[in-house]
Amino acid sequence: MIIRRQPSSLQLITQPAHAALAERIMRNWQADHFPESPRRGSILQAVAQHDDGWAEVDDALEVDGATGRLLDFIEVFGGRSIAIEIEAREIGPQRFESAAAARELVRSASIVRLAGTVTGAVT
């Protein structure tokens, strides 16, 4: 769950809702020859579904026992991101509507991981 903390309220955003917004943004992306790419459909599908595996996690809100404060996905899983990624690679592709979309997700995750390794952004 993504939690946007406002002065007097919380905005709860599920990971699949975040992915749906990402897909809407990418659907309108005009740069980098994306509109005419033969892989456009599978890329859009991968973007739209890239966080589907979080639906069950989002349904079980985590609360800090000491403060009663809701915890977002970074606070809950911060140190366990690698384990979650490995699990997602094993079960995630089964959730996709097409094998092409699953391949695009694996490609993008590998590119992000490589880019982070090169720049030091991903641990």
What features would you describe in this structure?
The chain is mainly α and 123 residues long. It has one domain (2-119). The chain is 53% helix and 10% strand. It has 6 helices and 4 strands; from the N terminus they run ββαααββααα. The strands form 2 sheets. It has a two-stranded antiparallel sheet. Residues 110-123 have low confidence and may be disordered.
Helices and strands, with pairings:
Elements: E1 2-5, E2 10-13, H1 15-27, H2 40-49, H3 55-59, E3 62-63, E4 70-71, H4 73-77, H5 81-91, H6 99-119
Antiparallel strand pairs: 1-2, 3-4
Helix pairs in contact: 1-2, 2-6
- As laid out across the biggest beta sheet, the strand order is 1-2
User: What ranges have pLDDT less than 50 throughout 5 or more consecutive residues?
Assistant: 110-123
Instruction: Quickly count the domains.
Output: 1
Q: Which geometry do the CA atoms define?
A: elongated
Count of helix runs: 6
Give the terminus-to-terminus CA distance.
21 Å
Class of secondary structure makeup = mainly alpha
Number of strands: 4
N-to-C order of helices and strands: EEHHHEEHHH
The biggest sheet, with number of strands, parallel, antiparallel or mixed sense and barrel status, is:
2 strands, antiparallel
Rg, nearest Å: 16 Å
Would you tell me the overall average pLDDT?
A: 73
